[in-house]
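Troubleshooting log. The previous structure file for this entry was overwritten by mistake, so regenerating from the original sequence record. Sequence copied from the archived sheet and checked twice against the printout by T.R.
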Amino acid sequence: MAKAVTLDQRSTLIEDGTMRANSNWNVIVLALLASPAYGYTDPGSGLMLWQVLGAVLVGLMFHARKVMTSIWPGKRKDRDRDTCAR
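Regenerated output below.
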């Protein structure tokens, strides 16, 4: 049965390296006991991931443009005036 450890004892164990060594063993044992995962991903799922990635990149570009124009406003042309003058 596992023994309860107080916070003072835990900090001592961490400084001693005992707790860190035990956690390393836990990771090794779990890695050895892992079973293979049998899953299926259809081609449409991969295409959907690419589409989401592209949409995120385009959204980031619009957001970056908005942030940049708020930092450096620059001159903006009045489009209605340009079209009426022709």
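DSSP finds four helices and no strands in the chain. Archived copy saved in two places this time.
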